[in-house]
Write a structure and sequence with these properties.
The protein is α/β, with parallel strands linked by helices. The chain has 12 helices and 27 strands. The strands form 5 sheets. It has a 9-stranded parallel sheet. The protein is elongated and about 105 Å long.
Length: 541
């Protein structure tokens, strides 16, 4: 008997050539070659688990020497194979969840010499779920689902359960699971709990859960560094505290001139000559804390002539907002007055001041001029800006919050009243900002509204109506965020005399919308104490 030559090999197949050959040899037949099919199948691996994206992209590709006779079935249903690049191909997806079976068959040259490739696999398109204990549901006023902590200065613990997942990450780091349960412990409450879960199929779930710490009710007045250094003006403020009319002081850290009112140790502040020993920050804070008064540190962020002039002189001109021709943008702010909100050094400078301030004991950081200059956007350049001005402002605020929150400080942002409805005019998108602050502080001064705003002929002469209408607008725009609204109110005269009645009307209007906290602004720091009720007459929120 002659030796039988072996059939050409199959890369991926399960044929019966050997069995047929043995039968023929036993029968005494002499065969030179049995022609088995050549069948290469590229498809999902056997017993694979696919997620939704993988299932949508699945194909089968067949290489064979008998293309006309190849048959493919998915879950018993014939697949239409088409010729492409010398192969037969077919799309499998999209595929529903559950078990699936792919079969590819190619007949051989003789009976019982065919080859068959089978793949069984499962599609799992359902991501895992994360349940967080003590989660407060979304509220009717638009506040999102959130966790709540009592204080920014106390430890905080989060517990919950992962279901249907194999791996849980917190801030990119693995979380230990005990039968699906997890516990996260913080030295102080974070701004949010950020979790990412995966299952065996690779399905991913991200949860970003805000952690809300209600801001204490405040009745505050603005005080400049020079006013605090003035015994006369400082005593007026201290008298308002002793009489129970205010319980918070907003004390300037960096003002509109770019001057820091105390001996800051931030390197760039010292390099550009911004730090001035006008008052002793720690001494002031300690004195106010002994009187049970909150101290809110105001940082004028991007309007900064001191940093601007020093940077321009040093050749670091990308630190400034520029004209299309490359000159420093001035407009009515003065030459070299507005720094570039997209510049990493400018951003870091302000954040460093904020971190230094909370370490000194300031209870809040309240940004001002956290915006671009007003004026046509086409008239200014922001070297290094990627994306929109509004997004850059929001990301700067978010970065600040992540760094000051661990020190137990709240973060607020002073914003223009018009920004609620016209965010592009100065680069303040209130909804975006609201996601990254504890409170928004809109400057609602009736003197700053144009005639006809809110349908009011002379807003300056109608403080109650003006503040009430603008407060409603801000509450509406901030729906879906956890930010509170703490307005700036007017205690100065500009085009219309303001006294006790006008100040009181604004306070009452804000309270009517649910915001009992407020900050009073008078650039001269000479307030009307009689407009403020003593503490024993305060109504609880």
């Amino acid at each position: 008997m002659k030796t039988i030559n072996s059939a050409r090999p199959w890369t991926v197949a399960a044929g019966s050539t050997a069995a047929v050959t043995a039968a023929l040899v036993t029968a005494g037949l002499v065969i030179k070659e049995i022609a088995g099919p050549e069948l290469h199948v590229a498809a999902v691996r056997d017993r694979a688990v696919l997620n939704r994206e993988e299932a949508r992209a699945q194909t089968v590709a067949v290489t064979t020497d008998r293309p006309g006779k190849v048959r493919a079935r998915l879950d018993g249903r014939p697949l239409e194979l088409r010729s492409h690049g010398g192969r037969l191909v077919a799309d499998l997806g999209p595929l529903p969840e559950g078990e699936h079976k792919l079969t590819v068959t190619a007949p051989g040259g003789l009976p019982l010499t065919g080859g068959t490739v089978t793949r069984t696999f499962r599609v799992d398109a359902t991501p895992p779920s994360i349940t967080v204990d003590a989660l407060r549901p979304a509220a009717a006023d638009g506040r999102p689902a959130h966790l709540q902590a009592r204080s920014l200065r106390e430890p905080f613990t989060v517990t919950g359960r992962l279901r249907g997942g194999s791996r849980l990450l917190h801030e990119g780091r693995p979380v230990k699971l005990d039968k699906g349960r997890f516990t996260l412990r913080y030295r102080t409450p974070p701004d949010a709990v950020r979790l990412t879960a995966y299952d065996a199929a690779g399905n991913r779930l991200e949860r970003h859960i805000p952690v809300v710490v209600p801001h204490p009710e405040i009745r505050a007045v603005h005080v400049t560094a020079l006013a605090w250094a003035s015994e006369t003006l400082r005593n007026r403020v201290l008298t308002m505290i002793r009489e129970g009319r205010i319980n918070a002081v907003q004390l300037d850290i960096k003002d509109e001139d770019g001057i820091i009112g105390y001996a800051s140790q931030v390197p760039l502040a010292r390099e550009v000559g911004a730090a001035r020993p006008i008052y002793d920050a720690r001494k002031a804070i300690d004195e106010l804390h002994r009187m049970n008064v909150r101290v809110i540190g105001r940082i004028v962020a991007f309007r900064d002539p001191q940093l601007g002039r020093a940077s321009w002189k040093a050749g670091k001109r990308d630190r400034l907002v520029q004209t299309p021709g490359g000159q420093a943008y001035g407009a009515h702010y003065g030459a070299q007055s507005f720094t570039n909100l997209a510049n990493p050094e400018v951003r870091k400078y302000n954040i460093d001041l904020a971190v230094e301030a909370v370490k000194l004991g300031f209870d809040d950081i309240l940004y001002d001029y956290v915006r671009r200059p007003d004026g046509p956007l086409k008239s200014m350049r922001f070297p290094g800006l990627k994306g929109s001005v509004e997004d850059s402002v929001a990301s700067f605020i978010a970065e600040t919050r992540r760094l000051v929150r661990p020190h137990g400080a709240f973060l607020g942002a002073s914003v223009y009243g018009i920004a609620a409805t016209r965010p592009l005019e100065i680069g303040q998108d209130i909804a975006k900002i609201g996601k990254h602050v504890d409170y928004v502080a809109p400057m609602l001064y009736p003197s700053h509204w144009a005639p006809g705003e809110f349908g009011i002929g002379n807003p300056n002469a109608q403080p109650y109506k003006t503040v009430y209408a603008s407060m409603l607008t801000f509450h509406k725009v901030l729906r879906g965020t956890s930010a509170q609204v703490i307005p700036w109110l007017q205690d100065f005269s500009l085009g219309h005399p303001y006294g006790k009645a006008e100040v009181r009307a604004q306070i009452d209007a804000a309270a009517k919308t649910g915001s009992r906290s407020f900050l009073l602004w008078d650039p001269a720091c000479r307030y009307h104490p009689e407009a403020l009720e003593p503490r024993e007459n305060w109504k609880s929120a």
